[in-house]
Amino acid sequence: MYVAVKGGEKAIEASYEALARRRRGDPAVPELSIAQIREQMGLAVARVMSEGSLYDPDLAALAIKQASGDLTEAIFLLRAYRTTLPRIISTVPIDTSRMLVERRISATFKDVPGGQILGPTYDYTQRLLDFSLAADTAFEQADTTSVQDGSSEVMDTVDTTEDPSDMPRVLDFLNAEGLIEHEFPATDDPAPADLTRDPLRFPAARDTRLQNLARGDEGFLLALGYSTQRGYANNHPFAGEIRFGSVPIEVVPEELGFPIDIGDIEVTECQMVNQFSGSHEEGAKFTRGYGLSFGHGERKSIAMALVDRALRAEDLGEQVNSPAQMPEFVLYHSDNVEASGFVQHLKLPHYVDFQSELNLIRALNLEASRAKQAPAEEDGNTKRPQQKAA
User: Fold this and answer.
1) What is the pTM of this model?
2) Which of 101, 160, 196, 382 has the fewest CB atoms within 10 Å, i.e. the most exposed one?
């Protein structure tokens, strides 16, 4: 950024002070703590961590506080901080089949091993303002109960002690019958690309696309996912399974040579079942769409799975005729940090550029005005307009 007037630095410093006052608000109101944001604004924290590519609830909460609740700005702050961190070791890929599930639903099968676990969700609320939340009352832990719904256990408790082995993935049933495409890495499968270190290049493989979508703006992906359901892609999705819970994180230290558990993180996973494909050589099979996000982010994971499937159109031999199916359009424009930078740079001084265009348009208008006057003067010198007879 450049300063075009003398004394601009003082004006910027005054702007910082004004921003700090605006961020703090009325000093008579207690200040929000990082712990309050982390614990009571968990969905916002989850989005900032996912799109900021850094799993740290405390830092995400700090970024939200510093950005006055502007999540795009908070994501920018977290990504900028992430670039300063050294990479000590890489983790083993997480295995979501080992997830300690807090919420798990399937729209394809009612009765699944382990049951449909509703867990924490807004799906069944009436979307009416709860004015009791405006009262400053102490939180009381509610008793957790479970109810029986047919042969499926529907639990309203947040914390579960389900053994992950008792809750197999729903899509594994389709896999066992050979009714859905298999997805196994090849023996010579290279290490996945790393968008945090290498720039986006085309053609982009699916691992690169999934990384980009995981960091992509939730609103943008939501709109694209919605477009696929309205006919702007060859898509007919079913939510095979949506899971939310904690998964173990493992690393393999060189001195040990075997994986060790270093903690857990919360993730949301969506496995989408899409329209089938087949040929004379191969039987019909459903196709897949996949989404994964940090924390509790179902809307983001579902939208990501829809767009992932749409981006596979060319790989599956389908026609590409909708925006959600075009990798360059989707991947280049899904990053809200880059998009915000391009859009908001318009606020910076462009005096020289504008003045040059202003002078150009004045010159063009002057030339056009002279061109109009010249024929009129020539007509006046050659002949006079005839008067109509009375």
Assistant:
1) 0.82
2) 382
